[in-house]
Amino acid sequence: MQLEWTALDPCVIFANRLACAPGFAFGPRVIREHQLLYVAAGRGTGRIQSRSYTVAAGDLFYYGPDIVHAFEADQAEPFVLYGLHFALQRAPGLEAPHAPPPVREAGPHEQESRPNRLLLGGDGGPLFELAEHSRPGAAAALQARFDRLVDGYERREEGLALLSSRAQLVALLVVLAEQDQQQRHRAADAGHGYAVRRLQRLLEERAALPYDREWLSEATGYHAAHAARLLRAHTGRAPHDYHNAQKLARARQLLRESELPITAIAEQLHYSSIHYFSKAFKLAVGVSPLRYRELRLML
């Protein structure tokens, strides 16, 4: 199911916090609403349609209408669960005070796999998928949001509490979407970091060669302009500047550790002339190549 954020007008149908008895189990069953099940403590097992899960504190499960699900608490460390039944758009009578929503045991014909995903997005922005199983993090903050939702449901006869519950539900979905984006960005940054390190190694290995912009795509697989932005973001230097720095580092090494004439070093490092090499070296190091070698020999 997919819904734009601007079309979202959710309501809480049922919310509770349950400290399960050892071995407590429910399902296989289906409900007619959407549900979030948050594991605040304990462990056990879960199954949603044909997919089985080892369940632990911090896990968040989502299943939509008529999705078969079942959970069983561990004997030694039973669950503490938050259950939240909700609709994405209000309808007459949904929020009226009533007993817990109807739950129906699932029949054998309902065990087949059905789509179970909720996408929220729109206006050209990124889509947020409320995954069947996730570990959002920020457990204390997330538990506090569920506590507020449970409190609002228990006071649902009050008009203000009813309005607050809607706001809390929207806030919860927004927080989950933001955490999902942050996790995606961290994963992307990790991938970018690997690409940048590959580019750095290539620029270091080819320090003696004339700079070639094609290296950026070769090392990273990205468009050259994007690779250049990544390197600048990670090192503060543009690729050509980074390559020049490596070339000068190689020059200092040759001046220290070899007897090569300065002209030969300039040629080996593909400087266009001894004059250009000396000028670039002095600008970066503060002394001429000859003076640098003399100072090194005096140490």
Automatic annotation (TrEMBL):
Gene3D superfamilies: Homeodomain-like, Jelly Rolls. It comes from the Bacteria. Keywords: DNA-binding, Transcription, Transcription regulation. The keyword Repeat does not apply. Pfam families: AraC_binding, HTH_18. Residues 197-295 form the HTH araC/xylS-type domain. InterPro entries: AraC-bd, Homeodomain-like_sf, HTH-like, HTH_AraC, RmlC-like_jellyroll. GO terms for molecular function: DNA-binding transcription factor activity; sequence-specific DNA binding. Residues 95-114 are annotated as: Disordered. The keyword Transmembrane does not apply. PROSITE patterns: HTH_ARAC_FAMILY_2. PANTHER family: ARAC-FAMILY TRANSCRIPTIONAL REGULATOR, HTH-TYPE TRANSCRIPTIONAL REGULATOR EXSA. This is Helix-turn-helix transcriptional regulator. It comes from Paenibacillus sabuli.
